[in-house]
Amino acid sequence: MKGLVYGGPGVRSWTEIPDPIIQDPRDAIIRVDAVTICGTDLHILGGDVPEVEPGRVLGHEAVGTVVEIGDGVSGLAVGDSVLASCISACGICSYCRQGAYGQCRNGGGWILGHLVDGVQSELARIPFADLSTYKLPEQVTNEAAVLLADILPTSYEVGVLNGGVRPGDTVVIVGAGPIGLAAVITARLFSPAHIVVIDKAQSRLQAAKMFGADITVLAGSQDPLETVRAMTGGLGADVVMEAVGTPSTFELCTTLVRPGGRVANIGVHGKPATLHLEDLWIRNVTITTGLVDTYSTPRLLDMVAAGQLDLGHMITHHFGFGEFMDAYDVFADPIHSGALKVMVSG
């Protein structure tokens, strides 16, 4: 079979690799029907995640069909259509017992495309398959389902819930990539007074408007701090979410938050960011970080199935497996391509 293999910083290839095999009784093998590319994959290629070793198959967001199960798998059968979560969960360690699956201490957490081979391939091994997959209702399309593998639960849990979004809040989201747009969608569930989105790509700001942002700021042409203070009587935002993963965007977030407000960092950071405690120590600001746990995935899946979350415009480009390299090029250049999320199908 073929897979998308990381060859070191800046190096990737769609190449022949061995078929996956059952390595543990709790494993399942899926035929990958649809898969997408994450901003985290770009961070890996940029050298920001040094734990990923050359030779690793990338990817942690897929929909597939079960083709083989281990003896310890009881909730799946060959032929089942499943969502493969970005987080694997053993289910028995102390963190998993609290629902903090991202911090699994027994070989789970974020491992796909990170510490073990991922799902950007024709076949993929899914560890802890009973707890790390979700059977898909017939009314949920592959396009919608693949967005539930990572970006929807990540934005909802690490951004909206960690940030404590409440009715009437002014919410600022820095970064209008897929994670930022998913934060717009899920923040709206809590009826904030305003959702402000900041980005340097006009096409992504237009998408933010489509998904529910009422104010957009074009970075480099408009002053985000001036905009936010003008609309909040000089106070700043109740909640600011960082959805890029650079020092400058994190530091911007800490200037936009009001006294007593919350900064929720969602972005993947590969470089140190300065924490200006000389300004923040007196302002009662809460800063949260986090890796998604995916405890919200079943609820989000139910909401999509019920038509309560409209994800129809998030996938902007479609590719076949033989076009995987092109898919990466398009996704990595959103200013010129207009890409939000790309889907690669078998």
From TrEMBL:
Gene3D superfamilies: Medium-chain alcohol dehydrogenases, catalytic domain (3.90.180.10), NAD(P)-binding Rossmann-like Domain (3.40.50.720)
Domain Enoyl reductase (ER): 7-344
Record GO terms (molecular function): oxidoreductase activity; zinc ion binding
Domain of life: Bacteria
Cofactor(s), names only, from the UniProt record: Zn(2+)
InterPro entries, A to Z: ADH-like_C (IPR013149), ADH-like_N (IPR013154), ADH_Zn_CS (IPR002328), ER (IPR020843), GroES-like_sf (IPR011032), NAD(P)-bd_dom_sf (IPR036291)
CDD domains: FDH_like_ADH2 (cd08286)
Keyword set, alphabetical order: Metal-binding, Oxidoreductase, Zinc
Entry similarity comment: Belongs to the zinc-containing alcohol dehydrogenase family.
Protein name as annotated: Alcohol dehydrogenase
